[in-house]
Amino acid sequence: MNRALFINNGDVWTNQTIEVENPATKEIIGTIAKAGQGEAKQAVDAAASALKAWQRKTAAERSEYLLKWHELIRRDEKTLGEGMTMEQGKPLEEAIGEIRYANSFLSWYAEEGKRIYGETVPASAPNKRIFVQKQAIGVIAAITPWNFPAAMLTRKLGPALAAGCTAVVKPSELTPFTAYRLADLALEAGIPKGVINVISGDAKEIGEAWMNDDRVRKVSFTGSTAVGKLLMRQAADTVKKLSLELGGHAPFIVTQHADIENAVDGLIGSKYRNGGQTCVCANRVYVHESIKDSFSEAFVQAVKQLKTGNGLADHSTIGPLINQSAVDKVQNHLRDAQEKGATLVYGQEPEETNGYYQTPVVVMDATDDMLCMNEETFGPLAPITTYQSVDEVIQRANDTPFGLAAYVYSTNISEAFTISEALEYGIVGLNDGLPSVAQAPFGGMKESGLGREGGHWGIEEYLEVKYISMQV
Ligand code: ADP
């Protein structure tokens, strides 16, 4: 498949292309036109031209477009899922699950856009009135990663379009096709030209073009902390509003009051979904010393059931990782942990070797000086450590610059709340390994990011507050 850029509802071809690889086979599955600064500007031109007419539509009209888009994505969920597995690697069932999750942001914001309420405030003088309105911020740029090629896009475009913004979008060059397929369906849904524009190319070049363009009023980014910090610096010159969803390093705490079966289920979901490549994946596991053996035995039994392989094969529950450096990072964390005294309790060589495969690995006796206990592994390695007291586990869990997601398993309500409230994390899964849904606020504290996506919080990110003071 060879794809053009998607600008103003039309194809834009360029002289250069980017090859896209299937991580399950290392085969090139297609190419995508490579944009430069010129196309980056062209995309903003299109979004800027479309802005007024899109803003002037009623919320109900914009809602109709989003719902039509939602309907078409549902119609094509299987083909979209297959396409995603081919470029991203995740098992087909998970890919279709992501398409549904992605789509839930369109239907949810199609409704929420109708509830962008203003306020009136009592004035300080009898002849004055205070009106507060909310207005779309303008053209927005969405820069998205490869781990959720559909959901990270709709999580931004759903609220942005519902609020009356138009968008320029840059998906990851590793997984671009899903974004273009979604754009095709937006076109089929009748979304006017210029409202959504998708380009691919050199990330730094496109990023700089958009960050320097004062017509882009807001940037919503999901990706690494390093790039998020760079964008924050670049946003200063034109004072853009920013939403940043950056790296996590989630602690998973299993107390002596946990329901062990539930905790094992939760950890399997949280740790191994998408092969461990989500920013809310459990990265380090803290188990109360009194249940160390019972928990770890049950966990290893469950891990043994996971099957690593091509995501299009029926039996696979873990697909390949995205590329060789992802596999190398897991191997590096594993080697480091073993050198520092961790015990490998489960791990096997992958059966398939054509792609970037990494089978699940479990290590015991992890210590706080190991790499895997300090930075995101972004792969299927589960390091288990023990703790003795609630204060100790809170301190160790919070001892990191990251603050995205944390998990607590406890059936003791007082203990569960004490830990949940003390955790310096934007999201706490309390007896819940998979907390992300369209109506809830997703986002991090500390260096994990700024702003929230999802729920009524998510649409505020695309709105400006305007105060009209009237003298009567
Ligand atoms: P990951 O490790 O998840 O790939 P990145 O932060 O590298 O995280 O990538 C997330 C998104 O940011 C991708 O779309 C990528 O192309 C883009 N990106 C990478 N570097 C830059 C940059 N300098 N400016 C703007 N976007 C960038």
Automatic annotation (TrEMBL):
The keyword Oxidoreductase applies. InterPro entries: Ald_DH/histidinol_DH, Ald_DH_C, Ald_DH_CS_CYS, Ald_DH_N, Aldehyde_DH_dom, Aldehyde_DH_Superfamily. It comes from the Bacteria. Residues 16-468 form the Aldehyde dehydrogenase domain. This is NAD-dependent succinate-semialdehyde dehydrogenase. Transmembrane segments: none annotated. Keywords: Oxidoreductase.
